[in-house]
């Protein structure tokens, strides 16, 4: 489930040789493959790479179609997953327009997580906001607690995962582990639309110098930020 959350909600980083020039590879049979990384730093060592560009789910599917790739190779610090193009096409077709369902969470575990967030947030100054939800895919009977964490660092993943590990070390939460709870890292620029959607959903949120209200009550909305210049998602080594 976390794999598809990362791919279809969080997007991936694709290595590039120059702005707009994606680096692809070949499998042992000669078929073209697209490489996707959970952390943009993982792709910088590829021959010819100057950085990594962020691609959301729709952009990834367009890239696979346009390049004629037969599979997507997803790499992270935990390992490598090879996803056949046919599987991704079927997923996109069957779940067209469908998104992970996020509801305000209830129960003692959700309460304990929000209280722990309020205590721990000051120890993670790069974290802007954390939203807690009860998440499930349409027609799935297996929901899980899901923490979306907006981090003012690039990449956001390491900080978000460190925060979750710190929360699960607290005594009331030590019984929790995946798949009961998971985290989705967000970057304020790359995932601005997702962050705005989370604020609209009425999910309980914890921000710096704030405390969560009653469970299921959203934190006060932040004032609209001044527009920023569009960020170019490639980096020189």
TrEMBL record:
Domain of life where this protein originates: Bacteria
Skewed-composition ranges (Pro residues): 215-227
Compositional bias segments (type: Basic residues): 228-237
Region (Disordered): 204-237
Protein name: Uncharacterized protein
Species this chain originates from: Kitasatospora cineracea
């Amino acid at each position: 489930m976390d794999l598809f959350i990362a791919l279809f909600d969080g997007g991936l980083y694709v290595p590039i040789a120059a702005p707009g020039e994606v680096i692809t590879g070949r499998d042992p049979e000669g078929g073209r493959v697209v490489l996707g990384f959970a952390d943009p730093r993982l792709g910088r060592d590829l021959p010819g790479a100057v950085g990594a560009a962020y691609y959301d789910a729709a952009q990834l599917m367009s890239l696979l179609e346009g390049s004629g790739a037969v599979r997507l190779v997803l790499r992270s610090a935990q390992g490598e997953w090879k996803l056949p193009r046919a599987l991704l096409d079927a997923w996109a077709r069957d779940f067209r327009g469908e998104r992970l369902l996020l509801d305000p969470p209830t129960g003692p575990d959700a309460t304990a997580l929000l209280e722990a967030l309020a205590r721990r947030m000051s120890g993670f100054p790069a974290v802007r906001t954390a939203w807690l939800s009860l998440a499930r895919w349409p027609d799935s009977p297996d929901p899980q607690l899901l923490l979306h964490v907006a981090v003012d660092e690039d990449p956001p993943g390491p900080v978000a995962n460190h925060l979750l590990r710190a929360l699960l070390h607290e005594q009331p939460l030590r019984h929790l582990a995946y798949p009961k709870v998971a985290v989705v890292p967000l970057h304020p620029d790359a995932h601005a639309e997702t962050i705005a959607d989370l604020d609209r959903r009425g999910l309980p949120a914890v921000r710096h110098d704030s405390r969560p209200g009653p469970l299921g009550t959203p934190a006060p909305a932040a004032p609209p930020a001044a527009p920023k210049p569009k960020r170019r998602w490639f980096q020189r080594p």
